[in-house]
Design goal:
With 179 residues, the protein is α/β, with parallel strands linked by helices. The protein has 2 domains: 4-68, Double Stranded RNA Binding Domain (2-Layer Sandwich); 87-166, Arc Repressor Mutant, subunit A, CATH 1.10.10.10. The chain is 35% helix and 15% strand. The protein contains 6 helices and 6 strands. It has helices at 34-44, 55-68, 87-96, 107-113, 120-128, 156-166, and strands at 4-10, 13-20, 23-28, 49-50, 105-106, 141-142. The strands form 2 sheets. A 4-stranded mixed sheet has the order 3-2-1-4. Strands 5-6 form a two-stranded parallel ribbon. Strand 2 and strand 3 (23-28) form a beta hairpin. The longest helix is centred in the middle third of the chain and has 14 residues, at 55-68. The chain is globular. Mean pLDDT is 89; it is low at 173-179.
Length: 179
């Protein structure tokens, strides 16, 4: 079965999802422009066909929409196809998925849960390549000292802060002044 894609509306703008027979293979965070979402999914999944979501994917979309409206939702039942994901990243994503909405953890905290606190940088690199944002909530993972750290999605750290605000996470943040 080939990869299929669909766009969906959220309070933050259109988002996108890609799936195959073994579950969701990719998610595109909401942006203001649907054409950008579609183009990004087609770049990530060459040959993907735009389709109506099956029941399982439609349920995942509904949960993502609920979460982005600020409604309590864990997304824990969403089935992800991790065949293209390295084993270490799979372990990182499994731990990240246990962080509930409104809560945060540090990269070092995930590294400790994986058994080696020295892996914090590797955890950060795995999360920077997260193909399943929102479902694997990389926005809930902070740098040491509770700093927001980087965020590779469109909008950068501001997007991370916005997602955390929607979830009512207790995170203080001041934008970096541009020099």
């Amino acid at each position: 079965m080939s990869v299929q894609i669909a766009l969906f509306e959220t309070p933050l703008g259109p988002g996108g999802v890609a799936w195959g027979e073994n579950g969701i293979v990719g998610i595109q965070l909401p942006e203001l422009n649907a054409a950008n979402i579609r183009a990004s999914l087609k770049r990530r999944f060459p040959g993907a066909i735009e389709s109506e979501p099956n029941h399982e994917v439609a349920a995942a979309i509904a949960e993502m929409q609920s979460l982005l409206r600020g409604e309590p939702c864990t997304l824990s039942a969403v089935r992800l196809d991790m065949q293209r994901v390295p084993e270490f990243a799979q372990q990182v994503y499994a731990v990240a998925r246990t962080v509930r909405p409104g809560e945060t953890v540090t990269y070092g905290g995930i590294a400790k849960r994986l058994g080696d606190p020295l892996l914090a940088r590797d955890v950060g690199q795995a999360l920077a390549r997260n193909p399943f944002p929102i479902v694997v909530p990389c926005h809930r993972v902070l740098a040491a000292g509770g700093k927001l750290g980087g965020f590779s999605a469109a909008g950068g750290v501001e997007t991370k802060q916005r997602l955390l605000a929607i979830e009512r996470a207790n995170v203080s943040w001041q934008p970096r002044l541009e020099v």
